């Protein structure tokens, strides 16, 4: 934009040129007028100078009237010789008949007595009127002046033509003096113009220097450099302009700083926002995109720049820009793929000027994946709970109805009907207790009562109970499963901080499951080992195993691989969900490895810190 200014395009040059041209034109006009006037005056005085005096005229008239006599001609010759004018080159006297009666030129004396051949003279004699001309003689390149004057003798009131005088004079002295003056004038004009030009250059540089400085300063301002100041040379208009440029520089700097600060503030607000923000121009092309939006949409802001917001959000199939502009509702954008869920809520609003002109669109993207998941889980949970409670209640109701209808009298069926209602009611109570403890853990009201426990001992204690159960009388009841428990523990004593009751509940539940889902006589292997910062308990069975697709859901609430079977065995589908919550509250992890048809291994890992022996020895 800031093209280099050619010297001939500069104001500096233009002012000097105008100044010089003005001077030149002025001199031209004055000179032309002056020389013209001089020429006119000089010629006039020259003519007056070369005209024959009236005295000579009257003596010529006298001699001409006397007729063509030698005497008269000699007189005329004398008169002509007396004429003393260096400019006059030739005087010839002719009578009315055109006969040459005298000639001032010595070489032309033989013409005397001959008829004139000059047509101009003949014309004058004929017209009886004087004639004059200035002419240029090509033979010797000189200007000359010719005047032919008729001569009259006056008797009374009548004028009689007696002849004419032909006079020729050189105009060269007049012209050479005019030329000299013209030359002087031209030289003076040139010198004056030259001096004027130098003066004009100085004056114009005095004007253009401040302008030039202001130009440089404004260019610097445009570049963003506000450090310079224009020098103020005076208080005239240019001085005031320079002052204005300096003020402008300060104002622009202030404005620039405040808009820069504003931009930084906006940038920091945008980049620290947990919501994604997109701003577009009025054509819907993205001009701003914050980090959150870029991550949520998985698009580099530089690539998104200038692209349509419809493409960036992938909603071109369903919406047009007009839809977004006219109807700024929220839009749910589902970006979920097979690997992960991602649902965004996009709120649109217009960027509008006071005049109502729409200059763009702002889109705020809010990640609602988690919220949607929680909503879905809550809905599923409510429906699961209702369903799980309805089934036992329905069966209890139908048994009670049957008893009510008279079955109570039947000693065969009544006790078994009552047993079923009792079992179902107990299962419901168990389920409600499970739900309550889950809800306590969810709300954070259930606290762990931690104590330092020797895990080897605790694990042995739990397993001993299961061994005892096998030996008790109940175990030999018909239909009860037999199993054997194998222990594989590390020799090292492992002390961990746990809530004993809750932890025992977890291990009980897993061993119960292992027994439940194992064939009769199955071996259950219980291991205890340590890594450098974890203790790991594992419980392996030789049971049904869990289908691969269900492994990820096994710890979900109410999830059961085979609902009917679990229910028949009094399961609630909440045991593993509770176990997971409890272990996670301890900062540990629970997971399962399973091969369908072969068996499953449940693992519990707890954080473990080795306690220094001496501490305990002292105690
Ligand atoms: P339930 O009360 O039904 O046992 P759990 O939460 O304890 O509920 O277990 C959830 C489901 O996980 C069970 O219904 C069962 O299908 C499956 N499961 C748990 N443990 C085992 C196991 N050791 N072998 C095979 N499947 C198991």
From TrEMBL:
Its main location: membrane. GO terms for biological process: cellular response to phosphate starvation. It comes from the Bacteria. It is found in: Cell membrane. This is histidine kinase. GO terms for cellular component: plasma membrane. The chain crosses the membrane at residues 183-207. It catalyses: ATP + protein L-histidine = ADP + protein N-phospho-L-histidine. CDD domains: HAMP, HATPase, HisKA, PAS. PANTHER family: PHOSPHATE REGULON SENSOR PROTEIN PHOR (PTHR45453). Residues 205-257 form the HAMP domain. It holds the Pfam family HAMP. Residues 384-610 form the Histidine kinase domain. GO terms for molecular function: ATP binding; phosphoprotein phosphatase activity; phosphorelay sensor kinase activity. Residues 262-327 form the PAS domain. Keywords: ATP-binding, Cell membrane, Coiled coil, Kinase, Membrane, Nucleotide-binding, Phosphoprotein, Transferase, Transmembrane, Transmembrane helix, Two-component regulatory system. Its EC number is 2.7.13.3. It comes from Liquorilactobacillus hordei DSM 19519. Residues 238-265 form a coiled coil. It is a multi-pass membrane protein.
């Amino acid at each position: 934009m800031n093209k280099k200014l050619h010297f001939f395009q500069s104001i500096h040059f233009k002012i000097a040129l105008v100044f010089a041209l003005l001077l030149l034109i002025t001199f031209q006009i004055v000179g032309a007028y002056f020389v013209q006037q001089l020429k006119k005056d000089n010629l006039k005085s020259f003519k007056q100078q070369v005209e024959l005096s009236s005295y000579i005229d009257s003596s010529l008239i006298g001699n001409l009237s006397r007729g063509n006599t030698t005497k008269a001609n000699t007189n005329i010759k004398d008169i002509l010789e007396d004429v003393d004018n260096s400019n006059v080159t030739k005087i010839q006297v002719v009578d009315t008949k055109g006969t040459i009666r005298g000639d001032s030129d010595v070489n032309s004396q033989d013409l005397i007595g001959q008829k004139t051949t000059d047509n101009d003279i003949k014309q004058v004699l004929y017209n009886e009127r004087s004639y004059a001309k200035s002419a240029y003689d090509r033979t010797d390149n000189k200007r000359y002046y010719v005047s032919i004057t008729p001569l009259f003798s006056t008797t009374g009131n009548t004028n009689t033509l007696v002849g004419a005088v032909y006079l020729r004079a050189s105009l060269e002295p007049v012209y050479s003096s005019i030329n000299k003056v013209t030359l002087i004038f031209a030289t003076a004009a040139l010198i004056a113009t030259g001096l004027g030009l130098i003066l004009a250059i100085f004056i114009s540089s005095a004007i253009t220097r401040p302008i030039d400085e202001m130009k440089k300063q404004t260019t610097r301002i445009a570049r963003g450099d506000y450090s310079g100041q224009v020098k103020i040379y005076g208080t005239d208009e240019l001085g005031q302009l320079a002052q204005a440029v300096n003020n402008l520089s300060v104002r622009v700097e202030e404005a620039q700083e405040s808009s820069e600060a504003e931009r930084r503030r906006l940038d920091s607000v945008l980049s620290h926002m947990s919501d994604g923000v997109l701003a577009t121009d009025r054509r819907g092309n993205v001009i701003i995109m914050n980090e959150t939006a870029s991550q949520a949409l998985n698009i580099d802001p530089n690539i998104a720049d200038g692209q349509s917001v419809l493409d960036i959000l992938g909603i071109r199939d369903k919406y047009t820009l007009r839809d977004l502009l006219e109807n700024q509702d929220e839009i749910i954008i589902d970006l979920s793929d097979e690997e992960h869920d991602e649902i965004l809520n996009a709120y649109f609003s217009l960027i509008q000027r006071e005049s109502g002109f729409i200059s763009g669109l702002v889109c705020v993207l809010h990640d609602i994946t988690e919220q949607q998941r929680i909503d879905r889980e809550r809905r599923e949970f409510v429906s699961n709970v209702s369903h799980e409670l309805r089934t036992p209640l329905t069966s209890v109701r139908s048994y009670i109805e049957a008893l009510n209808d008279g079955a109570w009298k039947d000693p065969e069926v009544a006790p078994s009907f009552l047993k079923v209602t009792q079992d179902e009611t107990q299962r419901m109570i168990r389920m409600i207790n499970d739900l309550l403890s889950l809800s306590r853990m969810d709300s954070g009201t259930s606290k762990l009562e931690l104590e330092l426990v020797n895990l080897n001992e605790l694990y042995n204690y739990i397993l001993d109970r299961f061994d005892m159960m096998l030996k008790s009388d109940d175990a030999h009841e018909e239909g009860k499963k037999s199993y054997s428990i194998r222990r594989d523990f590390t020799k090292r004593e492992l002390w961990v901080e746990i809530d004993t009751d809750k932890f025992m509940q977890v291990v009980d539940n897993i061993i119960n499951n292992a027994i439940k889902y194992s064939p009769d006589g199955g071996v259950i292997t219980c291991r205890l080992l340590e890594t450098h910062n974890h203790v790991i308990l594992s419980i392996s069975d030789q049971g049904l195993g869990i289908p691969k697709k269900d492994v990820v859901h096994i710890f979900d609430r109410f999830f059961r691989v085979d609902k009917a079977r679990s229910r028949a065995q009094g399961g609630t589908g909440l045991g593993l969900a509770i176990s997971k919550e409890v272990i996670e509250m301890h900062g540990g992890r629970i997971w399962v490895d399973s091969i369908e048809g072969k068996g499953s291994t449940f693992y519990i890992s707890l954080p473990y810190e080795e306690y220094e022996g001496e501490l305990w020895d002292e105690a």
